[in-house]
Amino acid sequence: MKFSLRSIAVLALCLLISIPPANAWNSIGHMAVAWIAWQQLTPHTRQRAIALLKKNPYYKKVWLKYIPAGTSADDKNLYIFMMAATWPDEIKASNSGYKNDGNTPPSNVGQATKNIGYKDKYMHKYWHFIDTPFSTDGTALPSIPAPNAETQITAFRKVLASNAKNSLKSYDLSWILHLVGDVHQPLHCSTRVTAGEPDGDAGGNSVKLSGSPNELHAYWDDLLGNGDTKNYSIAVTAAQQFPTTGTSASDANEADWVQEGFKLAQSSVYVPPIGPGLGPYTLDDTYKSNSHTIGQQQVALAGARLANLLNTELK
What we know:
By secondary structure, the chain is mainly α. Helices cover 49% and strands 2% of the residues. It has a single domain, classed as P1 Nuclease.
């Protein structure tokens, strides 16, 4: 399979140096997770996944338009799979036609947890993360809001393994492709609670940095580069550089994935030069190097676990 010209490789390298903030791992990171997963899917799972993703409203509306004429059928399927991993972020755009129901679960439990497929026109931003709290100064910990990324992965994978309608499975698959990537970003699994921020720092969004991006959460989101869904070739170039995963990739429990991210946040994110307050802080070369290594490891792990999940659950 041919992936890139020299110009694409150069552009990928520039993007990996990192720039403005966007969503978890950005489109490049999420598509890299999907590329890694695709390499480990069985032929049957690939075929089943593409058949379902063709039911996503963005398949004809957006994704096919990004793929140039003459692309082989195998490559087209790969790129569709990759682009689908960005869909839950794409619907958060102001002109997407989806309703913004906030970053915290609404009091209407039915609205917050419903799983009715593409008839659901809410963005469900609170499905993208799980604010597991910890405190470094003894401040009492708030409860974990639900639904969240963990509860939704649990719900969606059950549907994929069931005899539910293909239209619902398509919706849930589109979310699964994205959320598995989300929970491997440490700040999507944690929030630091202090006397100054008793409800938490929103996964590092309140912690300011000098330079760009100017928030801790945005910095970690941008570790793997920045780009849009149409830049799938950049994601391919990036993903090919990532390390292979170890035995931990076989862990199929989403609760374990969240706990790993939660522990990583404490051991590797909220560390010097990040101090106990809200900053602003200036990141040094050691922090940047370590965070980039962790980012690549986590994306590789997310891809392997996503493949295991789909090979097992996607009936």
